[in-house]
Amino acid sequence: MKTKLIRIGYLVIGIVAIAYFVSAHIVGLVFEKKYKNFLAQQNGDIYIKIDRYQRGWLHSRAKITLEIVGPGPLKKFSPYTIEQLIQHGPIIYYPGHLFFGLAAIENIFQYSNVVYQYNGMNIAFRKMRSHFWIDPALGSMHIDSSFTDITAGDGNEFISIPDIKIKFSLLNLDPKSLITFIEAYREIMRRGELYQSQLRYKLSLLLPSLLNPRSRFSLDEFNITMPQGKIRMNGSVTWNKDEFSFPDNLVDLIDSAVLQMKLNISKSLMSTLIDMISELPLFDNNKKDQQQAFSAAHHTTQNAVQLNTISIISLVKEGNLSEQDAINLLSLQENGAPFSFYNDVVRELFLKKDITAETSYLLYWQYAGVQRSVKALQQMVKQYHQETVQDLHAELAQWLKQGYIIENKSDYIAFIVRDEGEIKLNGHVLK
């Protein structure tokens, strides 16, 4: 009897397995037709081309190219290539879910050697790779991205980041609102309105409607690897089910959120970050005397530069200096040429009899004033920088003493909790 039951069990399992494989294959055939018809209907301001479609029993693989035909800032990155892994139904495993459906698509987006400009900064990365799943029916979005060999700078100074990895999920969003949000984003992109102010305003109006009491933002991985060390962060943002009031604006949405986050920063990297922060403009209201002194020195330097510029222009108008020589001298001033180098250039003009001795003395004297002001300002900035570094290290030591931050052999660690307007670091209320 027992042997017979085992045989029946194996038979049932075999029938179910065969039914699953056959149904998955049939669903794959049906989905391929629907998939190609759907993409063909999308062509307009965005042109979509299917480069490859390989159908298997349980999965299919596709490669598509998206080209922005209409206006908009994303056009300069066009065309986009997306690899797709398509899981056939009727039974689908989605990250954290098992459900019935026609198919689920994992998108793999990859870009190489991209340069992007933002607020005067040039941001470049050698390689970007992103996996993303969006399921409006479940109200879920999963994104897993990596960026390799990133550099960012304003033309004068650059920072280098070998690797950034981000993995997060948005779960249990309102399905109808998610579809509206996606369509709004597509419409903005198609109409060429994808600019910072417009994008923030239009999409921020839609964000609150995405949430419900079960919504959750999960940051599974956020790693930044730099030559000096690493920053690692993970955690979640949820909304209190009992007190959820369906906020209608972004401020109330953020204010009602419950944040739980763990942050690790390498000790070696913390020293670098403190050094970088200390070089930012002075905004410390507790040091108004420094701000006033800095502003006065900066004003003096600007006046010296302006006076020298006006003097050079006057020499050109009076016929005592050629326009080309004036352009060269002003270029040296703009680039902060050392006084000795500037002096050599002026002396060469005098020896060639392009300028008189009187003009050369005036040029020496004016640029010497510029250099004195610049050096005084640089010395002041250096002093303030050193004082700020000391202050920030003292603040870090104080936070360690108060328990806001804990440490191990290699890292500084903070457990951050924000709930009902109160922020706690490692269990201590931040005051």
Question: What does this entry look like structurally?
Answer:
This protein is of the alpha+beta class and 431 residues long. It has two domains: 2-276, no CATH class; 281-413, no CATH class. 43% of the residues lie in helices and 34% in strands. Helix 6 (288-317) packs antiparallel against helix 7. The radius of gyration is 31 Å and the shape is elongated. It starts with a helix and ends with a strand. The relative contact order is 0.06.
Concise structural overview:
The protein has 431 residues and is α+β, with helices and mostly antiparallel strands. The chain contains nine helices and 16 strands. The strands form two sheets. Strands 1, 2, 3, 6, 7, 8, 9, 10, 11, 12, 13, 14, 15 and 16 form a 14-stranded antiparallel β-sheet that branches. A two-stranded antiparallel sheet has the order 4-5.
